Amino acid sequence: MYALSLAQYLDTYNKPYKYARYLRIRKILSPQVFNKTSRHGHTINYTTTMTLTTASKGPAPIIEVPSTPALTALMKDLCAPSATPKSMQDTVHALTHQILTAAHTHDPTLAHTPTTLIPILRGALPMLVAAQPALPLSSSILTRCSKTKGTSDVAVEWLGRRPFPAAQDDGRLVVLDTVVATGDTIVQLCAELWALSGGTASMVVFCCYAAPAALERVAACPSVEYVVVGRRAEQCDERGYLVPYTHGDIGDKIYGEKFTVERPVVAAGEDVSRVMKGIAGLLVENGGAWRLDSEGLAIQRDFHFTGFNQAWVSGFFFFSCPPYMGYADRFDSRRS
Q1: Cβ atoms of residues 224 and 205 within 8 Å
Q2: Least crowded by CB within 10 Å, which of 73, 88, 316, 335?
Q3: CATH number for the 62-255 domain, one of 1.10.1670.10, 3.50.50.60, 3.30.10.20, 3.40.50.2020?
Q4: In the chain, where does DSSP find H-type helix?
């Protein structure tokens, strides 16, 4: 709380009347009224001194989906270590339907007014798929938020346009996220939306599984109207994981782990260029008798024998394809 004349506030901070809704006059001291024209051209009736404070806002309500055997079964599936990507997507779809039902009970206007859905990729994409048919007046804007475990630094990336400036047919913002552990991601997203809108953004948050402390942080954001959660976790542990555990990254469980090619291993002292030239001369396309295997990691050839006795040999053929390893070959044959 501080003492400041209204004209001084407007002139100093260059914020005319549109910001008056975020201020509240608490007490007028020495009420002497004057007329003054500010440097912005506004004629202001003001008192010599008045006390201004930022408008207070209580936390947004947190609505939890009522506990039922069906919800308990869905949460068990969500946290199952053996869940397949298809079963995870189906689980998130079903959880989203239950979240929407709870949201409609709290806010009956939701399905009848335009909404702009903002799924936090990649985990919330199945929520978007389930929510759009239930919200026929909805559009969507995609965002991807990245955060390194153990830090609170969140990078927000918009995959297309940003919600502000708003398009003519945009509606109420609805943020979707599957798992909220610390709340850092949604809090940062809400802060960015608040800044982009010039302090006018208002949004609803839907999440499937969240820590109690994270829900309180999200509900405290000035832009959040209310939060709907499928199930509260017991806590978020010191490593940033929800308890009970989801047994893996939620995105990996929904879509499968990212395919990665193992780094090539080259034998110490191996001359890779010499090996490549040597193997190239063995390939069929270069007049040789060998061909690459289906993965391109080795070379192979077929041998045809006239009878069983001729095929009874011991030994092996192996050539690895550079730059993965050095190569060796050995062929010992013995007639049985």
Answers
A1: yes
A2: 335
A3: 3.40.50.2020
A4: 6-13, 69-79, 85-106, 125-134, 184-196, 212-219, 250-255, 272-280, 308-311
